[in-house]
Amino acid sequence: ISPMALQIVSAAELASDVILAGMNAGFADYVVPMSLSSGQFEAMCRQRAYDPLLSYVAMRDDNPAAIWLVGSRERLAYLMASATVPAARGQGLASRLFKTSKAAILAQGMVGLQSEVIATNAPARGLYAKLGFSEGRGLACYRLPAGGTDAGEVGSLQDLEDLQDHLDWPASWQ
What we know:
- By secondary structure, the protein is α+β, with helices and mostly antiparallel strands.
- It contains six helices and five strands.
- The N and C termini lie far apart (35 Å).
- Strand 4 (76-84), helix 3 (93-107) and strand 5 form a beta-alpha-beta unit.
- The chain has a five-stranded mixed β-sheet.
């Protein structure tokens, strides 16, 4: 992909199906492959307080090459998804998207940008370190068996709220 053909575009200017196509293409070979339907993408955006004015997409012609999607709550921004399609990797697109998004985040008076990354995703961890992110805490992940489970096996929401008293770091807002 030629850098001359690339444009950094505000996500606010793009249809959600274009953004979703870029996200699905970028996550197709991810540590945990992901392919969302439009309904699942809309639910994710609601859950994570997606802010299209803080989010950007690198476009080549009419195709997304990389995405940088940010949610916001109060004065804190959260990187909810960053992905680059395989053919466009290694060209600095995520860094360009970060710089553009960072300017918008600061202009909105945000005090920080958080992200979460799977510990075994060395390329992402390296990128985030290069961009100035620092590790603040470990992330606990849980897997439920396919087909659902008995609620008693997982615990109640109250159990999860009670667990908060024993954490050394507040749980993320998502």
